[in-house]
Amino acid sequence: MAAQHRLHQTRARRRLSQVVGAGAVALALGTRSTWLEAGWAPLVLAWAGLLLVVAGVFGRLLSTLYIGGRKSSEIVTAGPYGLTRNPLYFFSFLGLLGIGLGSANPAVLAVLVLAFALYYPGVFAQEEAKLLRKHGEPFAAYQQRVPRFWPRLGGSWEEPDWVEASPRELRSALGDAFWFIAAYIALRAIAEAHARGLLPAYPLPF
Length: 206
Fold this sequence. Notes:
By secondary structure, this protein is mainly alpha-helical. It is 68% helix and 2% strand.
């Protein structure tokens, strides 16, 4: 039953991601921002976005190696889990920021950030309530020690000699990495097409 519930949650999350992603692409296709005309801004946005996407992808892969499919069965505190209780979601947020910046469109950036801000706090609360019921005081102590989302600078980084990783979880993370990269490339291509006048679009006032 628990496995079916997790599968349902994963599928619902992916459907939501697909809807938000399709909306972001449609918005990028139909609108053009003045950011594209602000001197060095397009180049700066492109590079900043790329760096954030790369950081998000590698951070998610590293977090997946540490969690290894054990998120519900034990409390993982090593590696990035000593800096934030939700490194997978934190690095996903970095990737979304990168995609939004790479689009050179503030409306697209706002949609991506707003969708994350509205949906994921509820996910955090639901997952942590389940872990608190399962693990009790040890997880409560972990909550007190490690922040929920934003990493604590100077936090504890424990690096064991070996970790057990789930090939299925790692394959899923690689698939997610592909979509982050593909989304960045697609939105960059749209921004370049707008900049060169190859796509008609509604001009935004910002």
